[in-house]
């Protein structure tokens, strides 16, 4: 019985599909781009500028504070000097006053000192006012005036009474002394107060320096930490992106933060790159496929010879013996012709269906049927190498969600590798069965050929790794197969013993839980 | 006129089914086989005048059948059925002692002609006219 190919019509709307597939990706790309650019911009550059501005502002405030405290200190020092000069004058005056009372010396010179003290107060009026306030200043002035008046009174009395001291003078001398004393203590007290204030100011300035340094350091540390983290996190993220893309996962980068920055431009460039890599990979896959088709066509053409030969012989005999044939024979012959025509059609359809270029289209697939088709494609190669292929399947396997063309290509790559590794007269087993993990099916391609030496087992999935002579192998078969299987959410594994043979096992998730698969791909997106 | 004893081996059942009567009509006694192993066994039992074998078959290929026949009895004429564009294989077969080859697809008369030539070479002409001397 002739087996129909699993896909009834080979001439599907392939060109349309491939365009819509590419179209879809372009739309995804545009969507990702829009989403990436829709966020408010906060660039790394802005953050650096902001950090510097913050430090600068803080420095200005601190410097202003320091200048102010220096000014304050200076002011206080000057005031203390003034108070000192004033005190010197007063003390001088008091010395004259004392001498007068003790020895009767001239009191007029004391009066000069009082004038000088007055002048000091006058000259430094603003300075004193700014520190002590008006009350204290007025007090000082009036004290001085009073003292002056007292001194003057003594001098007047002396002129009236000569050198003879009267009782009244004694009263006066007590007044004068008290007045002088209180003036001095007043000024000294003020000076002492200002001195402690001065010390406080100096202390404050000193502390300000230390605090400023500490705060500056804190700001710088926090700012560089935030900045470094922001950049390093991004770099790490892009490292995983690169690894992901290398493993064949072409999910586009979508927004992950509330703002965009310089890395957004990188994300756009990476997305563009992914799109280009994907397109180029599709070309590569297609060209690898066409190479396989090339090696198969001779076999397929030969395969085609059989039904055509059958038709030719039957047709000729039908004509030759037409008259002598009974109806049952005629019917039998025509039935053969019809069957063989279908067989020829199936052979061509299978090859064309496999060879045709198409965009990635996902559908629930019967893996066993795909394997049957693939084995049919390779049947002539197998026959010519005199290799027996055994195909066994578990009945009623769940379907696999995938791209039939790409999966057939994967299976064919494994079968062709197995043929290359087998000796003439060898055997290859192909099996499809439920995998050990639930919700997966396993496809095994087992050969009993050369096996794979341990030291190259780790490299066979690398692109361009081949042990076959130039022109025979490109070394892309397995790397491509791995990419395709990974895209289907599956795994490809190999077990091999040198001289014994190899077993390649592919596991693919089944369609019974489309929601789960969807959820998984969504997870991969985030 | 004695019958020409022919063994026809091709894993395509229709080939045997249709060619057996076609060859019988020109005076051949045909035994048809699809399985080369069984065919080889039969060849061991009996000396055929002509063996017609397909060149590409699963377990045992036509070349082995040729070698087997030649080794056993080099009087037997072996005719190889080859595929289209398999000239190198055909040449190899000729070197190994095949009488002639015929490429698929062929007409029944094409095969009859070659068998007739073989029969002539054996001195056992059959009931088929060889018109051209190609
Ligand atoms: N079944 C196998 N048995 C032994 N070695 C194998 C088998 N499958 C793969 N290999 C080894 O792995 C290498 C890489 O295989 P891969 O299919 O990637 O490339 P290739 O077959 O050499 O080239 P291409 O697939 O383009 O024809 C092969 O060259 C071979 O050495
Ligand atoms: Mg390969």
Q: How many strands in all of chain B?
A: 5
CATH superfamily grouping of chain B: Response regulator
The amount of beta strand of chain B, in percent, is 15-25%
Distance between the termini of chain A: 51 Å
CATH architecture of the domain at 46-223 in chain A: Up-down Bundle
- Largest beta-sheet characterization of chain A: 5 strands, mixed
- In CATH, the architecture of chain B is 3-Layer(aba) Sandwich
Which fold does the CATH topology of chain B refer to? Answer: Rossmann fold
In the predicted model, the low-confidence regions of chain B spanning at least 5 consecutive residues are none
Q: Helix and strand string of chain B, N-terminal first?
A: EHEHEHEHEH
Q: Total number of helical segments of chain A?
A: 13
Q: What is Rg of chain A? A: 53 Å
Terminus-to-terminus distance of chain B: 25 Å
Mean pLDDT of chain A: 85
Write the layout of secondary structure elements.
The complex is a heterodimer of chains A (526) and B (134).
Chain A: H1 14-37, H2 44-103, H3 108-123, H4 125-132, H5 134-161, H6 167-246, H7 262-320, H8 327-355, E1 363-365, H9 367-384, E2 388-393, E3 400-402, H10 404-421, E4 427-434, E5 440-447, H11 454-457, H12 477-487, E6 491-497, E7 501-509, H13 514-525
Parallel strand pairs in A: 2-4
Antiparallel strand pairs in A: 1-3, 4-5, 5-7, 6-7
Helix pairs in contact in A: 1-7, 2-3, 2-6, 3-5, 4-5, 5-6, 7-8, 7-9, 9-10, 10-12
Chain B: E1 4-9, H1 13-24, E2 28-33, H2 36-45, E3 50-54, H3 62-72, E4 77-82, H4 87-95, E5 100-103, H5 108-121
Parallel strand pairs in B: 1-2, 1-3, 3-4, 4-5
Helix pairs in contact in B: 2-3
The structure holds adenosine-5'-triphosphate and magnesium ion (MG).
Residues 413, 417-418, 421, 447, 449-450, 452, 460, 465-468, 473-479, 502 of chain A line the site of adenosine-5'-triphosphate.
């Amino acid at each position: 019985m002739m087996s129909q190919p699993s896909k009834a019509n080979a001439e599907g709307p392939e060109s349309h599909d491939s365009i819509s597939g590419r179209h879809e990706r372009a739309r995804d790309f545009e969507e990702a781009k829009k989403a990436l650019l829709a966020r408010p911009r906060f660039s790394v550059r802005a953050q650096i500028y902001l950090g510097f501005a913050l430090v600068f502002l803080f420095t200005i405030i601190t410097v202003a504070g320091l200048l102010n405290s220096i000014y304050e200190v200076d002011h206080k020092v000057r005031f203390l000097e003034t108070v000192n000069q004033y005190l010197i004058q007063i003390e001088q005056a008091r010395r004259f006053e004392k001498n007068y009372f003790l020895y009767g010396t001239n009191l007029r010179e004391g009066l000069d000192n009082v004038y000088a003290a007055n002048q000091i107060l006058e000259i430094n009026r603003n300075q004193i006012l700014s520190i002590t306030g008006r009350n204290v200043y007025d007090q000082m002035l009036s004290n001085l005036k009073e003292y002056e008046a007292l001194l003057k009174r003594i001098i007047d009395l002396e002129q009236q009474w000569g050198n003879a001291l009267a009782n009244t003078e004694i009263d006066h001398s007590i007044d004068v002394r008290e007045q002088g004393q209180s003036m001095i203590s007043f000024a000294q007290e003020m000076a002492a107060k200002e001195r402690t204030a001065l010390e406080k100011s100096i202390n404050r300035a000193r502390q300000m320096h230390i605090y400023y340094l500490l705060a500056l350091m804190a700001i710088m540390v926090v700012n560089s930490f935030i900045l470094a983290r922001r950049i390093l996190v991004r770099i790490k993220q892009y490292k995983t992106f690169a690894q992901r893309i290398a493993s064949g996962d072409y999910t586009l980068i979508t927004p992950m933060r509330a703002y965009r920055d310089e890395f957004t431009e990188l994300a756009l460039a990476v997305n563009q790159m992914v799109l280009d890599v994907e397109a180029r990979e599709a070309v590569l896959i297609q060209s690898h496929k066409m190479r396989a088709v090339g090696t198969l066509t001779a076999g397929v053409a030969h395969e085609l010879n059989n039904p055509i030969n059958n038709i030719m012989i039957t047709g000729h005999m039908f004509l030759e013996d037409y008259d002598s044939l009974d109806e049952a024979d005629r019917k039998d012959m025509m039935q053969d012709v019809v069957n063989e025509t279908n067989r020829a059609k199936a052979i061509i359809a299978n090859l064309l269906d496999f060879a045709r270029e198409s965009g990635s289209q996902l559908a629930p697939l019967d893996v066993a049927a795909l394997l049957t088709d693939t084995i049919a494609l390779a049947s002539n190669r197998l026959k010519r190498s005199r290799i027996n292929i055994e195909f066994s399947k578990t009945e009623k396997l769940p379907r696999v969600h995938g791209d039939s063309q790409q999966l057939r290509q994967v299976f064919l790559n494994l079968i062709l590798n197995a043929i290359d590794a087998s000796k003439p007269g060898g055997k290859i087993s192909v099996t499809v069965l439920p995998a050990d993990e639930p919700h997966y099916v396993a496809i095994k391609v087992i050969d009993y050929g050369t096996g794979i030496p341990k030291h190259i087992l780790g490299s066979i999935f690398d692109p361009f790794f081949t042990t076959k002579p130039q022109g025979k192998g490109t070394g892309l078969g397995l790397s491509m197969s791995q990419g395709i299987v990974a895209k289907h959410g599956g795994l490809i594994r190999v077990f091999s013993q040198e001289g014994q043979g190899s077993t390649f096992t592919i596991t693919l998730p089944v369609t019974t839980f489309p929601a789960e698969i969807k959820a998984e791909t969504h997870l991969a997106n985030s | 006129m004695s019958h020409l004893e022919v063994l026809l081996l091709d894993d395509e059942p229709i080939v045997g089914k249709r060619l057996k009567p076609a060859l019988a009509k020109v005076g051949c006694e045909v035994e048809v086989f699809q399985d080369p192993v069984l065919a080889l066994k039969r060849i061991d039992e009996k000396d055929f005048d002509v063996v017609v074998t397909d060149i590409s078959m699963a377990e045992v290929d036509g070349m082995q059948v040729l070698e087997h026949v030649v080794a056993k009895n080099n009087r037997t004429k072996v005719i190889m059925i080859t595929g289209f564009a398999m000239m190198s294989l055909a040449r190899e077969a000729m070197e190994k002692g095949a009488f002639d080859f015929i490429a698929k697809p062929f007409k029944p008369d094409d095969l009859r002609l070659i068998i007739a030539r073989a029969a002539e070479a054996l001195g056992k002409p059959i009931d088929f006219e060889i018109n051209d001397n190609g």
